Amino acid sequence: MIERYTRPEMGRIWSDQYRFEMWLKVEIAACAAHNRLGVVPDDALEEIKTKAAFEIPRIQELEKTVDHETIAFLTNVAEHVGPAARYIHYGMTSSDKLDTATALQLVAASDLLISGMRELRHSVGELAKKHRRTVMTGRTHGVHAEPVTFGFKLAIWHEELGRQIERLERARETVRVGKVSGAVGTYSHVDPRVEAIVCEELGLKPAPVSNQIIQRDRHAEYLAALANAGATLEKMALEIRGLQRTEIREVEEPFPAGQKGSSSMPHKKNPNLCERICGLARLLRAYAVTGFENVALWHERDISHSSVERVTLSDASILLDYMIHRMNWIIQNLVVYPERMRKNLNASNGLVFSQKVLLLLTRKGMSREDAYRIVQACALRVWDTERNLLDVLKEHAELKSVVSEKELEECFDLEGTLKNIDLIFERLGLV
User: Fold this and answer.
1) Separation of alpha carbons 386 and 392, rounded Å
2) Burial state string for 277-292 with b = 16 or more CB within 10 A and e = fewer than 16
3) What is the spatial distance between Cα 418 and Cα 390, in angstroms, rounded to a whole number?
4) How many Å is the Cα radius of gyration of the chain?
5) Is the pTM of this model over 0.85?
6) Is 354 known to be catalytic?
7) Mean of the per-residue pLDDT values for the chain?
8) Do 351-411 and 8-342 have the same topology in CATH?
9) Cα–Cα distance between 355 and 133 in angstroms, integer?
10) Burial (Cβ within 10 Å: 0-12, 13-18, ≥19) of residue 271
């Protein structure tokens, strides 16, 4: 049986326990900043640091009455701290704590996603190098085009994954922002130096300007980066699914002993994991849309974004993390059939070399229009008769006075067609 992949590190980041831990971390950091500026006495800060704690059931109990999670949290912390709790949340608004703590969660989640993507990219690179010279047909519109190698296909994925890692890194930097600027962001009741001290302590950057919240274009960029990364994973999964079709069967996703593909047809080996990745990519795109919807809020802010983010930020992070590690497992255990690739390449009876013949004729002085007309006519005969293109070309009366049989035969040299594959790999650093 395939074990269900779980990623406890990512799950913990989005747990209530971790979220409240970050809330408390922000509040204590603010108290320490106020202490440095002479607002919070030393003994009160020590009391806060020593006694501050929370219990989730108690917070939930209080929230039933106050209907305000931040107030319930602060009330529960105050129950532990005692009189010194009057300095907690001093001059702050809920979003100072919420948004700064969310930034800590997003940075932690980004680190896991980036690490996972790097592992996946490495796996793809290793498989690409292994199959650098594994010849197969390239397909455009689903129809045989010209020869490629399976490693070449993987090299494209490897390069694209690199760009996705860069996007995730940029998104991480964009959301690595905190704020302690008060109810509408004007620092009316809190010294701007507090924000700078808190953010430095937490490894964040202060928002250059904020109203009651950190602006949601930052979070939209994060969700967009996740959706973009998911689209690449979907692209990889879709290609594997296509190549696993019975009539193609050039690769297969892993099918461990004991796995079953169908409740009714015992022969089935379905690309279930790749289909799952394709489906989850749709969710990531939907979450990205909600991120853009959250950018426009009323005036200095409303709360319509809050309920959405309680779902999207956590779910999108967990989904992409799952997709990355499932795809990594697929790539590391992918079943590849080089002989089938070669057989499928040969199935189109030399049609994949038509462009080389076209170019040969133009080099011999024939107009491109005439050359195209002749090669296409011969190719269409191959489609209808399943003869070999080279044989049909040799019989064409118009060609006999233009090219020799040897020159035609050289057009069907597979190695010549793939002569620059090594150059591409060197350019990508896949050596």
Assistant:
1) 10
2) bbebbebbbebbebbe
3) 19
4) 30
5) yes
6) no
7) 95
8) no
9) 21
10) buried
* Residue for token pair 């704020």: 179
Catalytic residue list contains 189: no
Can you list the pairs that 265-274 forms with residues at least 24 positions away whose Cβ atoms lie under 8 Å?
A: 269/244, 271/237, 271/240, 271/241, 271/244, 273/2, 273/237, 273/326, 273/329, 273/330, 274/237, 274/238, 274/240, 274/241, 274/244, 274/330
* 141-182 tens-digit pLDDT: 999 999 999 999 999 999 999 999 999 999 999 999 999 999
Structure tokens at 91: 């001059």
pLDDT above 50 for 20: yes
Q: Are 287 and 224 in contact (CB under 8 A)?
A: no
- Give per-residue pLDDT as tens, 295-313: 999 999 888 888 888 999 9
- The active-site residue, picked from 141, 264, 267, 401, is 141
Residue of 69, 57, 122, 63 lying closest to 97 (CA atoms): 69
- Angle between the 42-51 and 16-36 helix axes, to the nearest 10 degrees? 170
**Domain boundaries of the chain, sorted by first residue:** 8-342, 351-411
What is the CB neighbour count within 10 angstroms for residue 318? 18
Contacts of residue 63, defined as CB under 8 A and 6 or more positions apart, other chains included, come to: 69, 72
Hey, what are 242's tokens? 């296509």
The CATH number for 351-411, chosen from 3.40.50.970, 3.40.50.2300, 1.20.120.350, 1.10.40.30, is: 1.10.40.30
Task: Calculate the CA 257 to chain-centre distance.
Answer: 30
Which of the following is catalytic: 188, 262, 304, 367? Answer: 262
- Residues 136, 150 contacting (CB under 8 angstroms): yes
CATH superfamily of 8-342: Fumarase/aspartase (Central domain) (1.20.200.10)
